[in-house]
Amino acid sequence: MKRNNKPRMSDPPFDDDHGKRNKDYELRACTWNVRSLNWEGAAAQLVDVLVKIKAVMSVQEMRWTGQGQRQVGPCDIYYSGHIKERKFGVGFVVGERLRRRLLSFTAVNERLATIRIKARFFNISLICAHAPTEEKDDVTKDAFYECLERTYERCPRHDVKIVLGDFNARGGKEGIFGTTVGKFSLHDETSPNGLRLIDFAGARNMVICSTRFQHKKIHQATWLSPDRKTTNQIDHVVIDGRHVSSVLDVRGLRGPNIDSNHYIVAAKIRTRLCAAKNARQQTQGRFDVEKLQSQQTAECFSTRLALLLSESTHQQLGIRELWDGISNSLRTAATETIGFRKVQKNSWYVEECRVAAERKQAAYHATLRSTTTRAGWDRFRELKREAKHICRQKKKEAEMREYEELDKLADRGTTPAP
């Protein structure tokens, strides 16, 4: 018998495209249970991860209250949380590439949310889901899947529909579920929550893609137990059956870290996004009116404005034309003399915070090695506490500076610019 001495092939990096395909024709959709974004620097670190992997990400257990949108760095975070309590909460993180292609965001409840993305041939509807755990009663589980069904039915008929999130469901290898489940699951037996997910997918001709691709077990696992001995595959990506051939790969990414015991599940989907909204729209900034407190700047602004007004109002014009001339003169004079304000989001998240986060990330990567020891995990926990302490301290210092600035403005009898 002839032995094969060829080295075993390893899984290629998720960013490896083998030079066969332009990345502009791919959508990278990820899901991540972050456990919590309710601590200093969490949102900024999440955005840093998204910028590196260049994807649209669905997020579970954000623990933010209410519904809305926040801009953090170059990304927009859309969230749907509980009205009062900081529990559960789902949402999406959208980068610069897809910001102008986003058609809508719909917040359903603290366990479900949807977005629509403009594409060339079929628009894409993404549903972020966070299912109850196995310990919950059947009433809670039935209510979740009924709401998920209604959310799915509200999506436009011809859209590519993708449901992704933390389903707390283990799929098995029984082979009786046909094409709904792939044959490369991490588990041998299907859990009760897995049966619910399979029933939902099978009734709508959908496919659980996270079990269709063969990878190492470390890239199949999506959850790690606190004792670091047990792994489960409970986060999934589900897509319409007629578009399942567009899914090129689904795998777990262990490298990114945000102090969660879940790994990112990343799907690479072949599609052509619409280029109509690719151009970045010009937005009107806010003028830096604080510069007018300088007498020299105020005189320059007044002189320039008087000159522009004299040029635009020397003719007999109607009321609308007169107002347009005054408005344009004000805008031009302000642009030339005082300029626009530089808006800073999370200005307290300075380089020291990023360095602490990078040290923590390096210690986390060291724990992923098979030779890691208890000392390695202790080092990671120590750096994690240090990073949180630095972020908390910098945020507090920034808030104190803002309070002092407000007190100074109040003493002068002025109000800060909005």
Automatic annotation (TrEMBL):
Annotated ranges, domain Endonuclease/exonuclease/phosphatase: 30-245
Coiled-coil positions: none
SUPFAM superfamilies cross-referenced by the UniProt entry: DNase I-like
Feature: compositional bias, Basic and acidic residues: 397-411
Pfam families given in the database record: Exo_endo_phos (PF03372)
Gene3D superfamilies tied to this protein: Endonuclease/exonuclease/phosphatase (3.60.10.10)
Region (Disordered): 397-418
The protein's name: Craniofacial development protein 2-like
